[in-house]
Design brief:
The complex is a heterodimer.
Chain A: H1 7-14, E1 28-29, H2 39-49, H3 57-77, H4 95-98, E2 101-106, E3 110-113, E4 116-118, E5 121-129, H5 135-144, E6 150-154, H6 156-161, E7 164-165, H7 171-191, E8 196-200, H8 203-206, H9 211-222, E9 230-235, E10 254-257, E11 278-284, H10 294-305, E12 313-317, H11 326-349
Parallel strand pairs in A: 1-12, 5-7, 6-8, 8-9, 9-10, 10-11, 11-12
Antiparallel strand pairs in A: 2-5, 3-4
Chain B: E1 3-6, H1 16-26, H2 40-60, H3 78-81, E2 86-93, E3 100-106, H4 115-124, E4 131-135, H5 137-143, E5 145-146, H6 152-168, E6 175-179, H7 182-185, H8 192-204, E7 210-214, H9 222-230, E8 235-239, H10 240-254, E9 259-265, H11 275-288, E10 296-301, H12 310-330
Parallel strand pairs in B: 1-10, 3-5, 4-6, 6-7, 7-8, 8-9, 9-10
Antiparallel strand pairs in B: 2-3
Helix pairs in contact in B: 1-2, 2-12, 5-6, 6-8, 8-9, 11-12
The chains are: A alpha/beta, B alpha/beta.
């Protein structure tokens, strides 16, 4: 299997290999981003929102800081190579950003399904960059983390299509303006030291015909971003055949894809043409509350090796883990890391071979 | 003289307090959604919310009062997801929206249920001029999976018979809206398009009320539109918000019924149209169609309104009603 991944992408990825990594091979382990909030965080938020409770903004900020410390540490205990703070400061992936961007307003909750709602915001004026969105969050996490930190950002296409548009001619022009703001934020994150940034675009899966709009957004986002900054794109729960291979032209280093949920029934999509980027493969299902065994996850990782060689493979859960019980989320990460390290050892020893036939005839 | 009737295709957002109460009483997983045999505590929430919704419509000045279908957790799939002969599968996407419903899998004969009739009985106690709303047979069959009937043709006929049975049990209503977004989103193929219209006939025949078929999320293909005009209904709906040119061209090429329903107010965007804008859209349609005079023009939102925050939903209803009054004054 040949690799056409660029030298810049390869070098950018290698900076996340820990100095004390035991195996010759390195499969990068990380998470998509969100993580279950400890129950006391929800209680603290309720207190903060209760005008009669003696719980002010300082106390609420302290609670969020503590939660970030705790979950960053939990990611490190699980052994992840690149960690996130579990998005402890964020309520919802569109709301959080819309609150920080001029031009948005909120009019109340809307239904997604059943009684699951979110405060879907309305764009009522041209969007403008105001306060920084994530620099404080990143600087705090970087300070408490011993491992490299990834910063997930909701992408402009999702910010546009999961909002009501009252101000723009069409969704694309709103998305392009938002992409310029994301670019501005990434510039600040890079200045603060961030080197792994993941753009989350789940809305692309719902309207795959818009991949060209997402591509144009990413061109704007990547503009001026230095080569040593590793850019990822997360897309989940859709029909990948409708966006592949077009996405290979996107200016990102890595694609983070959800495939465990469908038991890799979409894996074939990525065989032809050859996958020329780094692949962050979902190897545990974020929507089942059972922790997959190490053996099961190893089998999933081997699916990824059918698509890219180990030096292009990252493993992560399918999607954010925030809806799972916390001990299940931890179990999935821990088993995922163990599985990745065992696969690396098997690659080192030659027990697993890649680069010849995708399916080994040895067994 | 054309009669202007301000109304809606139903499936409203829950008032915010009811969102909270239902969420507390029911939970957030797919097993927590409505089953049709909810207990007294939950029934009380829905009763109170229904009363509020009826008052909102009356205060706005709408000419037809709908139940609002606040219990329809699965949107248009509801009449099946609460049915005893249906098992619910996974959560699936509701058309091209960031909304989801339980996939209804029909596993036994679709017999009479009466769920919707009970909602309408409750509404009729609160208001006159009640309008019933149901998914059209083609859309309801399209939203479901079938594991009981022999083929798609038989399934569509069974769904139509089921809906006709439900309509037969309704209290007296002024109008029946049959919502058919699937005619746009997943249009029937040759042969199937004729059957889709026949299925609508079966449902329409079950009532003496005026029947309006409302497709939305765009305009119909020419052929589907032509077949729909064969159906024995009083009015066909046009989603002027999503595709006014496509709708107009259908009417100008193939004509329409003596009455029309115009989707004038965007059910999926918070931007509230002024009554004047809504009235202008009616004028634009009438001026650009060769029809001399429609019997009735229904003024509606183009889609259901559960997509909207509650406060915006209330404002949209008021704009619709006021637009109808503006038009009456002009006439």
């Amino acid at each position: 299997m040949s690799s056409e991944v660029s030298d810049e992408s390869r070098n950018a990825r290698n900076q996340f290999r820990p100095d004390d990594h035991d195996n010759d091979h390195f499969i990068l382990t990380t998470v998509v981003g969100s993580y279950p909030k400890p129950k006391w965080v929800d209680r603290a938020r309720d207190l903060y929102n209760d005008p009669e409770a003696d719980f002010d903004e300082t106390a609420w900020n302290e609670a969020k800081d503590d939660a970030c410390r705790l979950i960053t540490d939990e990611h490190e205990r699980a052994g992840l190579d690149v960690v996130v703070d579990g998005e402890m400061r964020r309520n919802e992936m569109v709301e959080f950003f819309a609150h920080r961007i001029d031009g948005y307003e909120f009019n109340g909750p809307v239904k997604v399904w059943g009684h699951n709602c979110f405060d879907k915001p309305s764009v009522v004026n041209e969007v403008e960059y105001d306060e920084s969105w994530l620099v404080d969050e990143y600087e705090f996490t970087k300070e408490v983390a011993e491992r490299p930190v990834k910063v997930p950002i909701t992408g402009p296409y999702t910010l546009a299509s999961w909002s009501f548009n009252e101000a723009y001619e069409d969704e694309a022009s709103l998305a392009y303006d938002l992409a310029d703001l994301v670019n501005e934020e990434i510039e600040k994150l890079v200045d603060a030291g961030a080197r792994y940034i993941q753009i989350d675009e789940p809305a692309l899966a719902t309207t795959p015909d818009d991949h060209a709009i997402v591509g144009e957004c990413l061109e704007r986002i990547a503009d001026g971003v230095p080569d040593d900054v590793y850019l990822g794109l997360h897309v989940c729960y859709g029909d990948y055949s409708r966006i592949y291979p077009e996405i290979l032209d996107f200016p990102v280093d890595e694609f983070d894809l959800e495939l465990a949920n469908g038991d890799y029934d979409q894996l074939d999509v990525f065989r032809d043409p050859e996958f020329t980027a780094n692949l962050a493969l979902g190897v545990t299902d974020a929507h089942t509350a059972e922790v997959e065994t190490v053996e099961e996850i190893k089998a999933n990782i081997e699916k990824g090796l059918e698509i890219v060689p180990p030096e292009q493979l990252t493993v992560s859960p399918d999607c954010g883990l925030k809806l799972l019980p916390r001990e299940v989320a931890y179990g999935k990460m821990e088993n995922m890391v163990t599985a990745a390290r065992e696969i690396e050892a098997d690659l080192d020893s030659g027990k697993i071979e890649v680069g010849s036939a995708p399916v080994s005839a040895d067994d | 003289m054309t009669e202007r009737i301000a109304t809606t295709p139903g499936v409203f957002p829950l008032p915010d307090w009811a969102k909270d109460d239902c969420s507390d009483l029911k939970g957030h997983q797919k097993d927590d959604l409505i089953t049709g045999d909810e207990g007294p505590e939950l029934t009380a929430v829905y009763d109170e919310a229904r009363e509020e919704i009826v008052t909102v419509q009356q205060d706005a000045g709408l000419d037809r009062i709908v139940e609002g279908q606040l219990r329809w957790d699965d949107m248009l799939a509801h009449p099946l997801t609460v049915h005893d002969s249906v098992e619910t599968g996974g959560i699936v996407r509701y058309y091209d929206n960031n909304n989801f419903y339980r996939d209804p899998v029909v596993v036994d004969e679709l017999t009479f249920d009466g769920d919707v009739a009970a909602e309408l009985e409750a509404t009729a106690e609160l208001a006159g001029d009640v309008q019933a709303v149901l998914p059209g047979p083609y859309s309801l069959a399209d939203l479901a999976a079938d594991e009981y009937y022999d083929d798609d043709e038989e399934f569509l006929a069974a769904v139509a018979d089921f809906l006709a049975g439900e309509v037969d049990a309704f209290p007296d209503v002024e109008t029946l809206f049959l919502l058919e977004p699937s005619l746009v989103e997943n249009p029937p193929e040759d042969g199937e398009d004729a059957r889709a219209s026949e299925a609508i006939d079966v449902v329409a025949d079950a009532t003496d009320a005026a029947v309006v078929v409302q497709p939305y999320f765009g305009s119909l293909s020419e052929k589907v539109h032509a077949h729909l005009l064969d159906a024995d209904v009083d009015a066909v709906g046009y989603d002027l918000v999503s595709d006014h040119d496509g709708c107009l061209s259908n009417v100008n090429e193939y004509g329409t019924k003596d009455s029309v329903s115009l989707g004038l107010v965007d059910g999926q965007n918070t931007l509230v149209e002024s009554p004047e804008t809504v009235a202008e859209r009616v004028d634009w349609f009438e001026e650009n169609t060769p029809v001399n005079e429609f019997d009735t023009v229904y003024l509606t939102t183009n889609t259901e309104t559960f997509y909207l925050p509650y406060s915006k939903f209330e404002k949209k209803l008021a704009a619709l009603a006021e637009a109808a009054q503006l038009e009456e004054v002009k006439a």
